[in-house]
Amino acid sequence: MWDEIRGNTNINLDLFLEIVDFCIGASCFCFRQKFYVQISGTAMGSPLSPILADIVMENLLRRATTAANILPELIRKYVDDLFLVLHKDQVNAVLATFNSQNPRILFTCEVEENGRLPFLDLLVIRQEDGSVKTDWYAKPISSGRILNYFSFHPSDQKLAVVNNFIDRVRRLSTTRSREEQDILIHQHLSKNDYPRTLINRFLHQPPRTDNPEKPATYRSIPYVHGLSSSIKRILHKSNTAIGISHSYRNTVGHLYKNAKDPVSDLNKCNVVYRIDCKDCPSTYIGMTTNKLRNRMYGHQTHVNTLERRLSEGHQYTDPEILQLQEKSALIQHCIEQQHRFNISNPSIVDTTHKKQALQVLEMCHITTTSNTVNHRTDTDNLSCAYAHLLAQIKNQRAERSASSTIQNNRRETADPTP
Fold first, then answer.
1. In the beta sheet, which residues pair with residue 288?
2. pLDDT at site 233
3. Phi-psi category of 356—alpha, beta or left, where left has phi over 0 and alpha has psi -120 to 50?
4. β-pairing, 242-247 with 217-222?
5. Gap between the Cα atoms of 120 and 142, Å rounded
6. What span, in angstroms and rounded, lies between the C-alpha atoms of 414 and 409?
7. How confident is the model at residue 283 (pLDDT cuts 50, 70, 90)?
8. What is the pLDDT of residues 388-408, one digit of tens each?
9. Residue 22: CB partners within 8 Å, gap ≥ 6?
10. What DSSP designation does 75 have?
11. Coil/strand/helix, residue 313
């Protein structure tokens, strides 16, 4: 496909193939302390996998139709599902041709019964005059479960589910009358607890039209019942070109135990971390997009340089020592107070995969953490909109810390060590 690709890149073919080979060959993973490399196919979840799957299917379909002595009258493809129209005596020969293209890709065949053949969520019905009609289709094993009306989701998403289901049944069902379609729609939506009045309201409203004016930018915010809808409404009234989509904390991944090997804290990336001073209550808050281990190596290197220069006879006030203060607030505290930090035992206080959000989280934690050695300029880019909320969090932490200290003192007084 290089002839189709070359117009979209300045990379030459050799380098392009090297990059693709590297991306595909980098599918390695760790399971139970052993490392594995994928030798066939592409990794599930990789952004490259669906693109390559579509390219492979297009290539296989082109080679199979070229090699077949008998060409189907019609071929339609959706990902790895094919719909073919051919004579019934040609089915086995065409299936064998498709299965001979690649030993790892084998197709199964489903033929029409009584002039009916399901394809995806469509039932294709062949008429006696050769014409075709369709009907909405669900597999016999389908549970019929969709987004439940009482689920913890925004109301606009539930309304979209109703609208989309009605629209799909209307478009795909050419054999059912309007009344039969309404009965089918009521049956499926009622099983998912949608009120009958809501269903009737959507059934009798005029067909919706697509809104040509779409927001220029979308932002994702966690869904909080009552709050998220108000934020979305305010942004809509302010005529800002920002669309809001909601994210959820209680996902299936949080309900089931993670089957993957746990990643140690030092091997985690995109984290906000905290390092405590060994000689005083001070702490240092930092962030890194690389492995936390590598960031600790950097801090330790600065401390080692300080120790080496001190061992060479330099004093803390010498220029050779003072110039190290520019490295970070951590090493500056080490020089000014002659203290040392517990670099070998950092703690992760927050994590995210969004680089911009990581910077905001770091500034928030610096603001809400007492006794930080960080520079005041480290929070200059933090919006003042967070000030009141962060002040409340900081006060609550201080109150909890004071309460915990009082309780510990009482325990020590009540139970003195013999």
1. 271
2. 81
3. alpha
4. parallel
5. 12
6. 9
7. very high
8. 888 888 888 777 777 776 776
9. none
10. E
11. coil
The Cβ of residue 56 has, within 10 Å, a number of other Cβ atoms equal to 15
Q: Does pLDDT of 324 surpass 60?
A: yes
Are 259 and 349 a contacting pair, CB within 8 Å?
no
Alpha-carbon distance of 74 to 347, in angstroms, equals 61
Which two structure tokens, joined as six digits, stand for 367? 């603001």
**The one-letter amino acid at 273:** Y
Distances (CA, A) of 249 to 152, 222, 409: 11, 7, 38
With residue 134 as reference, give the H or E element that holds it: strand 132-136
DSSP assignment letter at 262: P
What are the structure tokens assigned to 246, written together?
A: 């909601």
Half-sphere exposure of 19 (CA within 13 A, CB side): 8
What gap in Å lies between CA 245 and CA 224, rounded to an integer? 12
Categorize the per-residue pLDDT at 307 as very low, low, confident or very high, splitting at 50, 70 and 90: very high
Beta strands in 127-257 (DSSP E): 132-136, 217-222, 242-247
User: Are 335 and 321 within 8 A, CB to CB?
Assistant: yes
Residues 6+ apart with CB under 8 A from 211: none
Strands 116-119 and 122-126: antiparallel
**Which two structure tokens, joined as six digits, stand for 264?**
């140690």
Contact 278, 340 (CB under 8 A): yes
CA-to-CA distance for 107 and 95, rounded, in angstroms?
7
Residues in contact with 104: Cβ distance below 8 Å, sequence separation at least 6, in sequence order: 40, 41
Record the tokens describing residue 309, joined without a space.
């220069």
Amino acid at 180: E
Instruction: State the Cα–Cα distance between residues 222 and 101, nearest whole angstrom.
Output: 47
Between CA 294 and CA 5 the distance in angstroms is 38
Q: Quick one: tokens of 21?
A: 């080979």
Considering only CA atoms, give the Rg of the chain.
Answer: 32
CA distance 339 to 173: 76
One-letter amino acid of 250: N
CA–CA separation, 223 and 252 (whole Å): 16
Regarding pTM above 0.90, the answer is no
- CB of 115 within 8 A of CB of 125? yes
Q: Which residues pair with 351 in a beta bridge?
A: 271
